[in-house]
Each structure stands twice: as structure tokens, then as C-alpha cells.
Specification:
Residues 187-214 form a coiled coil. It contains eleven helices and seven strands. The protein has helices spanning 4-15, 19-31, 49-61, 68-76, 91-96, 107-120, 125-128, 168-182, 187-196, 198-210, 223-238, and strands spanning 79-84, 132-134, 137-139, 143-148, 153-158, 161-166, 218-222. Strands 1-6-5-4-7 form a five-stranded antiparallel beta sheet. A two-stranded antiparallel ribbon has the order 2-3. Strand 4 (143-148) and strand 5 (153-158) form a beta hairpin. Helix 1 (4-15) runs antiparallel to helix 11 (223-238) and helix 3 (49-61) packs across helix 6.
């Protein structure tokens, strides 16, 4: 696998970020217990896809290293709340098909898995079947990772499917309100349920306040950038 220096260099180049800036963000994440740690030199640990995923998520959310922990946690732990299957595939067929991006994944896990796919699976039949040709040559499968910063949400597009990620605390609150509406819960019971969720809602409010803006900001990366990020691990896989 890749060591820290290789991970920083490859990730910075792929994202167009100065290595020094990325290194500061990494240090902040490591001090928060969000990065692989270990010895130095030959004893240095191998970095993981999740390590790189957290750096990518930070870079998508903000360019401020001081915000690295908040960005990696607030967005990395978004949960998949909806999957829109490809137009030519029914929801039933999509659910049965083996797909590395499962609904239960948190956003950081899904990003890490997509990086793994572009590192390890490029020669597999299912991956090759998604490639396509044009006058310019053979193209990798279309994919996208994007965050909607001010709304604390994210999306991923892969193999024709669109994955929506939302904050777990807000999703829980929304589900309680929806269930109460569908089940015709009386006002007193509804108030009791909402009071019980006050702590969860407060956590969401605090997180959302960090990214509040009247300007709707969407930041994302596409296929070629994702492929460039995966080269950090691909060399060790090919050995």
C-alpha cells in the first residue's frame, strides 16, 4: 500500500492543492484520531482508502485546514437516504445487482469504496463493461462525488445510479415527522416525540450553522480526478 508521503503527494496533485496545505489538514485529522498513525521510516504504517477519502471530503467542503475535523466528520458521516437507479434499470434489479456502494454506507465509506474500485477493479469485467469509446478513445465509466456545502448533503453518481447522502440527525427528525403524519398521531404524542429528539436536532443545527450561507455552493470531482486519486494505491496493487 501507500505511505504518507505518497498519499499526500498524489492527493494534492489530483486535487490541485498545495502539498503543504494538505499536510496541515492531514495533521489536524490525525490529531483528532481520524487518520492511520504509527511509526516513522520503515515502521511507518500503510495509509488506507478511508484516509484518502477523509482528505478528499475535507477538500470538497472547505479549503481551510483548521476546518478539517469538522468537515471530515460532519460530511463523512452523512448517511445514504435514497438511491435513484439508472433509468434503464428497475429498482428491483438495482437492488439485486452486486454493487460496491451499498445503501448502508456512510458517505466517507462510499468515497473510500469508490477509490478502491478505481484502484483494484479496473480490469474486472463489470468495470470494463462500463467503459465506452468515442473518437477520442476509450473513456472510464462516468462517476461523480459532490457535496452541497450549505445544505449539509452530498451525492455520488456511479454506474448510472445516483446516491443521496443526508445528515443522520436531520433524517431521523424528518422520519419522525413523516411517520406521525402518515399514522395520524395526535398533537400531544407528536410533541413528545419531537421533545425526545431535541438533542439530535440541536446537533444538526450546530453542524448546519458551520456551513450556513446565502450562496448555494456545490463542489465536486469527476471521473478523471477520482482515477488520479486512486493511482496512489494502484501501483502497490499492481506489484
Amino acid at each position: 500500500m501507500v505511505k504518507l508521503a505518497g498519499l499526500i503527494s498524489t492527493t494534492a496533485t489530483a486535487l490541485g492543492i498545495p502539498e503543504a496545505t494538505l499536510a496541515i489538514a492531514f495533521r489536524s485529522l490525525r490529531e483528532s484520531g481520524l487518520m492511520t498513525t504509527g511509526g516513522r521510516g520503515r515502521a511507518a504504517p500503510d495509509m488506507t482508502y478511508l484516509d484518502q477519502a477523509r482528505l478528499v471530503i475535507w477538500a470538497l467542503v472547505t479549503d481551510k485546514p483548521a476546518m478539517a475535523e469538522h468537515a471530515a466528520v460532519d460530511f463523512g458521516r452523512l448517511i445514504c437516504t435514497e438511491i435513484e437507479p439508472a433509468p434503464d434499470r428497475s429498482p428491483e434489479a438495482g437492488a439485486r445487482e452486486i454493487n460496491p456502494l451499498q445503501k448502508a454506507y456512510k458517505f466517507e465509506d462510499a468515497v473510500a469504496e469508490l477509490l478502491r474500485v478505481f484502484s483494484e477493479d479496473t480490469q474486472l469485467e463489470y468495470f470494463q463493461s462500463e467503459c465506452f469509446e468515442s473518437a477520442l478513445g476509450v473513456h472510464l465509466p462516468p462517476c461523480e462525488i459532490s457535496v452541497h456545502v450549505s445544505s449539509l448533503t452530498a451525492i455520488m453518481y456511479w454506474r448510472g445510479d445516483l446516491y443521496h447522502f443526508s445528515d443522520a440527525d436531520q433524517s431521523l427528525l424528518d422520519n419522525v415527522v413523516l411517520d406521525a403524519f402518515e399514522q395520524d398521531v395526535d398533537a400531544a404524542e407528536m410533541a413528545e416525540k419531537l421533545t425526545a429528539l431535541e438533542a439530535e436536532n440541536q446537533r444538526y443545527v450546530e453542524k448546519a450553522a458551520r456551513y450556513k450561507s446565502n450562496i448555494k455552493i456545490t463542489r465536486g470531482i469527476m471521473t478523471n480526478t477520482i482515477d488520479s486519486l486512486a493511482t496512489a494505491f494502484r501501483a502497490s496493487v499492481d506489484v
